[in-house]
Amino acid sequence: MISIITILFIAFSSNSIIINSTNTSQADNNNNNNNNNNFTMSCNISIIACLNDIPHPEKKEDHKIQTDLILEQVSSTRLKEYIDTLSSFHTRHTKSHHIEKAANWLKSEFENICKGIVFFHNYTQSDQNQTFHLKNIICSKQGLASSSQSNYNNNNNTIVIGAHYDSRSKNINNTDARAPGADDNASGVSALLELSRILSHLNLKYNLQFVLFSGEEQGQWGSKNYSRYLNNSNLNSTIDLYINLDMVGYSSPNESNKVILEYDVGNKYLQNDEYSKTIALFIKQTASSYTNLEAILSKLGNSDFIPFEALGHAVIGIHDGGSENNPHYHKSSDTPDTLNIKYLTSITKMVLATILELDKLSHY
């Protein structure tokens, strides 16, 4: 199956889709020479507008209505409940005994809401003369394209959505300090749980993996070990895109609708850069089409996307401004009452709409 990244990038490179990131103009409506078998359109309005004009059995309006109906399934109540529960742990510090309890709760929650294979990825990490036995938690949903193949492990493409579930205080060596980590990163975990609840029950073409990492605060321990596991299991080549959710619940009063989309620039795999920016632009237009969010493009920072980028994958990071925006970052005051659940709901809808739009594109 052709990579969704490849489809998008070919569309850009062949001038099938032309993006003007600062000025949008009306699309050319001359359809006299349409060819239903290839991308032979040119427009200056948006990725979504152009892609929706590609021949497809469903009318654009019908697809928009269907997507809006799915987006309405996102529950602000559930998002808040997830955050309240995660923040109720005294800490989710990776080196504390609380991390095991949080992992068990998350696995149980996945088993209740995610229609897929739920499992622990266990790994061992040594640090400061200590050995830690830790867990990532995964729900893996097989797509329609893979279900038609005899060997799931060697076929077709996978979109991975990840978030870290550990927390920390300002002093990272204080393993027992109160660290509710509501924004960092119960917010990302709650969005991922809600995405898994909805997406895993849909019949989509692509494989989906929803992955919760421990050890991000110590230097991406969980994601490094999991990406290594995928590589050693010959699953690495199936990954098409990695989307990271890290701090997506705090909005400052004067910028309540801004969300940061991080794309790859100048990291280990330079060939990722154009693909990553293509996806970032795609998400930006999706946000505009389906939410009130203003997506701001930025270069990759430092989170769980780094190990995936290092293995050659296109990666995207989504956050609310992070440590520069949230005054409660790594403090005991990072509590649920400081978050904007409406804002978190919009970001969850943006990611959900992105997956649905990518799936739509995969059918062409």
Could you explain the architecture of this structure?
By secondary structure, the chain is of the alpha/beta class. The chain folds into two domains: 54 residues, no CATH class; 293 residues, Aminopeptidase. The protein contains eleven helices and eight strands. The protein has an eight-stranded mixed β-sheet, sandwiched between helices. Helix 7 links the parallel strand 3 and strand 4. Helix 1 crosses helix 9, helix 7 crosses helix 11 and helix 9 packs across helix 11. The longest helix is centred in the C-terminal third of the chain and has 21 residues. The protein is globular, with a radius of gyration of 20 Å. About 13% of the residues have low confidence.
**What fraction strand?**
15-25%
Number of strands: 8
Q: What structural class is derived from the secondary structure elements?
A: alpha/beta
Biggest sheet layout: 8 strands, mixed
Helix content: 25-40%
Distance between the termini: 11 Å
- Largest sheet, order of strands side by side? 1-2-4-3-5-8-6-7
SSE topology:
Blueprint: H1 4-13, H2 47-52, H3 60-71, H4 76-88, H5 98-113, E1 117-127, E2 130-141, H6 144-147, E3 158-164, H7 182-199, E4 207-213, H8 221-232, E5 239-245, E6 258-263, H9 272-290, E7 294-299, H10 306-310, E8 315-319, H11 341-361
Parallel strand pairs: 3-4, 3-5, 5-8, 6-7
Antiparallel strand pairs: 1-2, 2-4, 6-8
Helix pairs in contact: 1-9, 4-7, 7-11, 9-11
